[in-house]
Amino acid sequence: LRAATSMESGPVARALLVAESSAEPAMLTLTADGRRASVNDVYLEPARGRPNLTVRGDSLVDRVLLEGHRAVGVRLADGTEIEAATVILCCGAIHSPALVLRSGIDLVGVGQGLQDHPSFPLAMHLRVPTADPLGRLAVTAMLRATYREHHDLQLVAMDVVDPLSPSLGLLLGAVMRVHSRGSVTLASPDPTLDPIVDFEMLTDERDFVARCELRPLSRSGSRSAWRCRRSRPLSRTTRPTPRSGCRWAATCTRSAPVEWARPMIRWPWSTAVVE
């Protein structure tokens, strides 16, 4: 784990780091030879040769098998049962509670308390397209800010939003201390169907007020970047087309369906030009 270097930063990250003294390089997990490392590279690949490890691809789990109050294995969607002395659920914030509910564990609190970070995106058109967008890191710099709680707001510089659009950059502001709570419920006992997800974003007034504080923070950061890079903003605020706006929003959330990201694009997007 180390801070990103200037050689790894793109134009949006470099502009933010120069323009805002409190901005900082992002911390990156790297392999010994300096490559960006995924969880698979760091943990799974070195262990593939172990005799006690079997990796099953394309194996959708239907439910956890129980004997009384004890988990003893899992049943796959095709009916295959796998016995286990220990069962670890690691299906993420969406599908872990869905799997628990399909297993008949309908206790108070299961599927409740879902949280996510409301975000405000500020799209930028780069005068000089990002070099090697497929090989460049998306995020190498950020700015942490305090509104009510310590570092409850965050501004992230994204040099790569879509590798097919190397002239597109982004400043993404996010609320980091979230008070709104959502839920995950089953749409059907069929494991091939996604559960019903309701984030209930901004339903807590504290999140809504903090979210509003992101807009001037994002614009202030972008204006500083424009001055730093001797660039100019476009003459008007623009709203993206539904297709491009949804694609960008879905990319920013790095999570599932586009419709979950729609609250992010209710406000007009500002567009800037950065060298």
Notable traits:
275 residues; alpha+beta; six-stranded mixed β-sheet; 6 helices; 14 strands; globular; disordered C terminus
Can you offer a commentary on this structure?
By secondary structure, the protein is of the alpha+beta class. The chain has 6 helices and 14 strands. The strands form 4 sheets. The chain has a 6-stranded mixed beta sheet with strand order 2-9-10-11-8-14, with helices on both faces. A 3-stranded antiparallel beta sheet has the order 4-5-6. The chain has a 3-stranded antiparallel beta sheet with strand order 7-12-13, covered by helices on one side. The longest helix is centred in the last third of the chain and has 25 residues, at 205-229. Mean pLDDT is 78; it is low at 226-275.
Topology:
Elements: E1 2-3, H1 11-19, E2 24-25, E3 27-28, H2 39-44, E4 61-67, E5 70-76, E6 81-83, H3 92-102, E7 112-114, E8 119-126, E9 139-145, E10 153-158, E11 168-175, E12 182-185, E13 196-198, H4 205-229, H5 242-253, H6 258-261, E14 271-274
Parallel strand pairs: 8-14
Antiparallel strand pairs: 1-3, 2-9, 4-5, 5-6, 7-12, 8-11, 9-10, 10-11, 12-13
Write down the secondary-structure element order.
EHEEHEEEHEEEEEEEHHHE
Structural class: alpha+beta
Total DSSP helices: 6
How many strand units?
A: 14
Runs in which pLDDT lies below 50 for 5 or more consecutive residues are 226-275
Overall mean confidence score, pLDDT? 78
Helix proportion of residues, in percent? 10-25%
**Biggest pleated-sheet summary:** 6 strands, mixed
Radius of gyration: 22 Å
Q: Could you say which overall geometry the principal axes of the C-alpha atoms support?
A: globular
Strand order across the biggest sheet?
2-9-10-11-8-14
Query: How far apart are the termini?
Result: 30 Å
Beta-strand share of residues: 15-25%
